[in-house]
Design brief:
Strand content of chain A: under 5%
Shape of chain B: elongated
Strand content of chain B: 25-35%
Order of helices and strands of chain A: HHHHHHHHHH
Number of strands of chain A: 0
Number of helices of chain A: 10
Distance between the termini of chain A: 33 Å
Number of strands of chain B: 13
Helix content of chain A: over 70%
Oligomer: heterodimer
Structural class of chain A: mainly alpha
Largest sheet of chain A: none
Radius of gyration of chain A: 18 Å
Structural class of chain B: alpha/beta
Number of helices of chain B: 11
Helix content of chain B: 25-40%
Largest sheet of chain B: 6 strands, mixed
């Protein structure tokens, strides 16, 4: 299912563009906020959970995944270089799985690892840092699946990805009770909360539903993205 | 044998029971409410076929239908009996050179072609890449990033990537774009060799001379329809014997009109402010007779301009005929 040549081309494409410089910005902001609050409040306050949960898992992970996930396939579709990849007998599922793997690993590197570093800065190698890191790992994978799907299925994937993060997760999921079940942020916080047992994380789901829903989302997005890439059509000039 | 032919790398004969048959059966394709391809039926076998037509005629749509990047709205497209739509396995025997210039420009040509060989799961990707780069004469520049290449070199890198798995069917969309005359001749020689070795080669072009030099058979497409199909020489004869329109200016236009209308080679004459508009039924006879009859009538010719020599008018005539 994983094709190392597709992944190699994707990594080269991803880090060969100036856009790659943007990947590190959210992580830098997170570390700067953490250092500032540590300097101001030490470890006695509730701020570590709020920063790691809301800023780390809730903002840095989806934003980085959005930048990476929409680049890893969407850019190739935009400039039609994807034709060279698709004019080969490589199964479309392998292309999708490889693109998602590249996106997830890159998001982990630029978002999940900084969340762990921020957690260690805030409280040392505590359960909170580990929990948020694992939540961020889960978020990196599922966001990557969703944004690669948007790239395969939609003409303007960045707009739809932004709408999902800003409107669905930050607005609708906080206002409408049932919407939390369809929020990747909530699944990530559910993992973080379960592992760290920290009540200050704004989590509304427990471990099992978070994992089950995330697995269902991964399976469905990989399947549908494969379907859409199999039916890829060249756009008319 | 020409110098160019001597420099071209040899092409191995195809290892197959027979050429793959590419078939369009009453194929129509719409983009929204625009008909890009309109009820086209054709069959291609071994050899080089030129897909000729003006820009926007539907040539790229036909190639994209053949490579499975579009599905026919009506009719069927098959390569050796298999529809390419949603069947990437057809690329085991098909190579595609897209028209658009977008390639993985951050890779070198060697990396690009080797990656293509790996994607085809060839047993020795590096050797296959070297062979393909040699075929297109790109070994010297193969370690430079593609973004530093001229358009013609990019085209050759794309052709090498499409040839790396030694396909039985090769589809090329405007392959000579951006190539200098020498590169063009070499590419023509390569494609001719591939066609002669039993492969099915289909290339699109809007330039008559390219098709004339290379193709055994021609499919002329105009406004999404197949305007003419078959041997190039037959189509060329149709093109040269079609009615032509000339604009003439002379020392006495009205007198010249009277003389010309008596000629069998002239269908009609119209006196306009700019001069005479002459509809000639036979291009060759008219151009030979014009000077003769005007001299005999004591009329001096000041200007003779063919007014419908554009490719579009040639294609429009073929559609009409």
């Amino acid at each position: 299912m994983y094709n190392s040549t597709v992944a190699w081309i994707s990594f080269r494409a991803l880090f060969g563009r100036r856009r790659a410089l943007l990947f590190v910005l959210p992580a830098i902001v997170l570390v700067i906020i953490t250092l500032s609050l540590k300097g101001a409040h030490g470890t006695v306050s509730d701020w570590p959970a709020l920063v790691l949960g809301r800023v780390g898992v809730g903002a840095v992970v989806p934003l980085t995944a959005l930048l990476v996930g929409t680049s890893v396939l969407g850019s190739e579709i935009d400039d039609n270089s994807v034709l060279h990849l698709l004019a080969t007998p490589v199964p479309r599922r392998d292309v999708i799985v490889s693109k998602i793997t590249v996106s997830a690993l890159t998001t982990m590197l630029f978002a999940a690892v900084p969340v762990l570093i921020a957690g260690i800065i805030a409280q040392g190698p505590h359960k909170l840092a580990i929990g948020c890191f694992l939540g961020a790992i889960l978020g990196s994978i599922v966001y990557s699946c969703l944004f690669v799907l948007f790239s395969a299925a939609l003409r303007h994937p960045v707009i739809y990805s932004l709408a999902y993060v800003a409107l669905w997760e930050q607005l609708i999921a906080t206002l409408v009770g049932g919407a939390k079940y369809l929020s990747i942020e909530q699944w990530s916080l559910g993992i973080a909360h379960s592992v760290s047992d920290n009540g200050n994380l704004d989590s509304h789901l427990t471990f099992t539903p978070s994992i089950v829903l995330a697995v269902i989302a991964v399976v469905l997005t990989v399947w549908y993205a494969t379907e859409r890439l199999s039916a890829f059509v060249v756009r008319a000039d | 044998m020409s110098a160019i032919e001597q420099t071209a790398a040899p092409v191995a004969p195809i290892e197959t029971d027979g050429p793959l048959i590419v078939r369009f059966d009453h194929v129509t394709h719409w983009y929204g409410n625009v008909v890009a391809v309109n009820d086209i039926s054709l069959e291609l076998g071994a050899g080089v076929t030129g897909l000729l037509g003006p820009n926007g005629a539907g040539k790229s749509t036909i190639l994209h239908l053949l490579s499975g990047f579009l599905s026919p709205s009506r009719g069927s497209v098959t390569i050796d009996g298999v529809s390419p739509w949603r069947h990437p396995d057809v690329f085991r025997t098909v190579g595609l050179v897209p028209e658009r210039d977008s390639v993985y420009a951050f890779l070198t040509a060697r990396e690009f072609v080797t990656a293509s060989a790996k994607l085809h799961k060839l047993p020795d990707p590096k050797a296959a890449a070297e062979r393909a780069l040699e075929l297109v004469e790109m070994t010297q520049a193969a370690d430079r990033p593609i973004q530093t290449y001229s358009k013609g070199m990019r085209q050759r890198a794309k052709v090498a990537a499409a040839l790396v798995h030694d396909p039985k069917v090769l589809l090329l969309d405007e392959p000579f774009n951006g190539m200098d005359p020498r590169q063009r001749m070499h590419m023509m020689d390569l494609l001719r060799g591939l066609g002669a070795s039993g492969r099915t080669i289909l290339f699109s072009s809007h330039i008559l001379e390219e098709v004339e030099k290379l193709a055994d058979t021609v499919q002329v497409v105009v406004a999404g329809r197949l305007a003419a199909s078959g041997d190039y020489r037959t189509i060329r004869r149709l093109m040269t014997t079609r009615p032509h329109v000339f604009l003439l200016r002379s020392t006495d236009d009205r007198a010249l009109a009277g003389v010309l209308i008596a000629s069998d080679a002239v269908q009609g004459v119209e006196v306009t402010k700019a001069g005479l508009e002459v509809h000639a039924s036979d291009h060759g006879t008219f151009t030979r007779e014009l000077a003769k009859v005007s001299r005999a009538a004591g009329i001096g010719l000041r200007e003779v301009v063919p007014s419908d020599e554009s490719l579009e008018s040639v294609f429009a005539y073929l559609v009409g005929s």
